[in-house]
Amino acid sequence: MAVFAVGDIQGCCDELKSLLDAVHFNIHEDQLWFVGDLVNRGPQSLETLRFIKSLGSAAICVLGNHDLHLLALAYDSDAPVADADLHTVLHATDRDELIAWLIHQPLAHYDEQLDTLLVHAGVANEWTVADVLKRASEVETTLRSGHAGDFLTAMYGNQPARWADTLEGMDRLRFITNCLTRIRYCMPDGELNFAAKLAPGTQPKHLLPWFELPTRATQNSRVVFGHWSTLGLMQRPGLLALDTGCVWGGALTAVRLDADEPPVQIPSRQPKLFEA
After folding, report:
1. pTM (2 decimals)?
2. Cβ(217)–Cβ(240) under 8 Å?
């Protein structure tokens, strides 16, 4: 069995299928780990959801910020849908099945044998792997409860910016969500900062990428993530970043997690753009 991690798809289903052909993916034997952001901005969000759902247990997906945005739109019929590609999902004949499937995807996944943690964006500096899974479970439980709509409406915002075990209610859930699905840079003390988005080296000097904080509690396990297209493919001991900007005209990337093999990339079929 081969285990592949795949970067942000964002509605680029044709590229995903080409990538799976390139790695000789076998649905009966192999496993795919998706870093989230399956939808939005690309032209095939509906096709992407249908295809990954059809993979069944061969696919492990964590939710990204764009996936959560789709869920928020699905729960609020009055919310504006700026992206026409999400409009196709929300008006699909199988919309309810797709939304139900998406809302049951986790925000974090850990494989003990591979000692590998999968998240969309990053983790709080203080959290161990066990903490990440517990915090993710808090949000997952809320999403699958009768309070999903309330949470999805109130999840937007940048505060609180620091973790505390005493955080409660929506402040607690919003911080967890922001860490797992939106984080890029932090202050040296771990305070979240969302103003800087571009590649390391362009940020103000007082900010650090979340994964470079020297006291990060997950640094002894491998963390696989996406979300950061201007960071691109990054392979370091204990770190694997996979968002290579397919939707911006870059590439879609897969890396095998259970063997030392070169990354496999499929060039994007989308117009060459830059992240805003």
Report:
1. 0.95
2. no
